Structure formats: C-alpha cells, structure tokens
Amino acid sequence: MKTTGVVRRIDDLGRIVIPKEIRRTLRIRDGESLEIFVDREMIALKKYSSMDDMTEIAKTLADTISPTIKKNIFITDRDRFIVTTGEERKKYLNKSISRVLEQQMNDREILIEKNPHSIELLDGKKEEYTYIINPINVKGDVVGLVIILSVEETITDVDEKIAVVIADFLSKHIEE
User: Is 122 strand, coil or helix?
Assistant: First the structure.
C-alpha cells in the first residue's frame, strides 16, 4: 500500500476528511458510498460498487449473447470495465472508463451510432465503432453502462433491444 504523506485528525464525531486531491484522483464523488475494511490495525476504504456483486452474472450473460449477435459487449460500473467480450477483452477489462463514458452516465440517455463513429472508451484513445451505450438504472441512479459495439457489423434494432434487456436484467438483480 502506498502512503500519501497526508495526515488527518479525527473530529469529536469520529469523522475524517479525505483530501480533495485524493477524491479527484480516485473519482470519488459527493454522496458516493465507500466500503470499510479492517485488517489487523489498518483501516482501508474502497469505493462501493453495486455492480461488483453482479460481475459473474453479467459475464455469463455477455458471453452467451455476444457470439449470437456477433458484436462485443462491455459492461461497466461507475468507474471501470467489469465485463468485456471478444478480441477486445484484454484491452479494456478492469481499465478505467473515459470521461466521455462518465458523462454518458450523467446524461442518462441511450446513445446509438449505426455507422462507424469515433468514440473514446479509454481516456485519450479514440476508436471507430458502431455502438449502443445504454445506462443501467437502479432506483433512479445510474450504476453502469451496457455497451454493444462492433468494428465491422452495423447496429440493428435487435441489438438496441438486447442492450435494453441486459441493462434491465442487471438492474432488477441489483435491486433484489
């Protein structure tokens, strides 16, 4: 574990302030939940993601659907790619999502490009794909994205429906 050199005092209510620089670096937003871990004499904080519990189900779902539609399926939480399929798997899996995708979550809208179009999935790397980006909404909060993309194939109406079904399926499972 890396030290930051930052020392904070605990107030009389047991609170500490996480410095703004660290929050910005780790993309911790106001109101976001953190998980607390204890190991001997160490307290560790980790950004909480409701999608963490869904990774195996999401992976099975994406791995089942992807070969049928002949397109890659990526699923993200608020910060990183948690599921990727196809040849692109290693390039994106567990990598931080771009600010563009973060903004797409904030916009809460489905984005569809049926013709090859440039998109920045990772910060600083634009690539040409046809794609659908569908937010995963849980009780009014966007917790991630379903992305269906292809280099060669055109996005169809069926692909659009599949993206919605995957997002709804994951949303319902997270709510339970």
Answer: strand
The tokens describing 74, both together, are 């990526």
- The neighbouring-strand residues paired with 120 are 126
Q: For the residues of 1-36, what is the DSSP string, one character each?
A: -----------TTS--PPPHHHHHHTTPPTT--EEE
Contact 14, 30 (CB under 8 A): no
What stretch of H or E contains 149?
strand 141-150
Alpha carbons 155 and 139: distance in angstroms, whole number: 28
φ, ψ of residue 120 to 5 degrees: the values are: -105, 100
Distances (CA, A) of 17 to 4, 43, 78, 84, 114: 14, 14, 22, 35, 46
Report pLDDT digits (tens) over 32-88: 778 888 888 888 887 776 666 678 899 999 999 999 999 999 999 999 999 999 887
Which own/partner pairs from 38-47 qualify as long-range (CB within 8 Å, at least 24 positions apart)? 42/1, 44/1, 45/18, 47/78, 47/79
Query: Are 48 and 28 a contacting pair, CB within 8 Å?
Result: no
What is the distance in angstroms between the CA of the first residue and the CA of the last residue of the chain?
Answer: 34
Q: Roughly what angle, to the nearest 10 degrees, separates helices 55-69 and 157-175?
A: 170
> What is the C-alpha to C-alpha distance for residues 99 and 25, in angstroms, rounded to an integer?
13
